[in-house]
Amino acid sequence: MSSPRIPRAGITVIGSGAASAAVDRVTISLAVEAIRAEPGDAFGNASDTATRLLSILADGGVDSRSVRTSDITLGPRIDYNNGRQQVQGYQAGQRLTVIREGLHGIERLLTDVASLSGDGVRIDGVSLTPGHPEEAMRLARDGAFADATAKAEQLAALAGRTLGSVQWIDERPDGGGPRPMMAMRAVAAEAMPVAAGDADIGVNVTVHWAFAE
Asked: Which CB contacts under 8 angstroms, 24+ apart, belong to 147-156?
């Protein structure tokens, strides 16, 4: 039977840091849906709509490698009448994920998708994230370690001790996401405005110091 683990002498603190990163990557979730009496008609209509949607995306400057089909469905629409199932038609659909680098033209692209794709197209979500958060992560990590060091030095002084060497460090990403901090860019009145802002990149570090002898 192993003996109980004896805590190592020293001090353990958690430090937090954050930095802002420019939002320059857009992920758009799109869905195509068609309902018809016959399955072939539903599937064909959904296919035509998806083809038209892909053409609109291409005209908007979206590279074909940045568009991915994530799901294709076909099935009956079931209704219940007096406890009995009744087929009300057939529903076909496709889900697309679009990743676009840069925000230029995104308002016009979304407006074109909404107005030119026809019935049965949904914009399920638009996510704005930093495409290159590495520098912000480095700054957040610097801040987190400095925060941990200041806390540890204060607590050690209160205890009448002096910090020694760092024994171990554990890093955990902090929650955070895009938050609109900048004014909406000027766009045509008929286009859907998109608030371009910065994203908070947060880091938490847990650091253990030994006490100096």
From this structure: 147/15, 147/16, 147/17, 148/13, 148/14, 148/15, 148/205, 148/206, 148/207, 149/15, 149/207, 150/15, 151/13, 151/14, 151/15, 152/11, 152/13, 152/207, 152/209, 155/11, 155/13, 156/11, 156/209, 156/211
Query: What domains lie within the chain, and their CATH numbers?
Result: 11-22+132-211 (3.30.110.170), 25-129 (3.30.70.2970)
**CA pseudo-torsion sign 202, 203, 204, 207:** negative
**Mean per-residue pLDDT for 20-35?**
92
Distance CA(186)–CA(36), nearest Å, equals 41
In tens, the pLDDT along 73-104 reads 999 998 888 878 888 899 999 999 999 988 88
Give the whole-angstrom CA distance, residue 127 versus residue 122. Answer: 15
What is the per-residue pLDDT across 39-71, written as a single tens digit (0 to 9) for each?
999 999 999 999 999 999 999 999 999 999 999
Q: State if pTM tops 0.70.
A: no
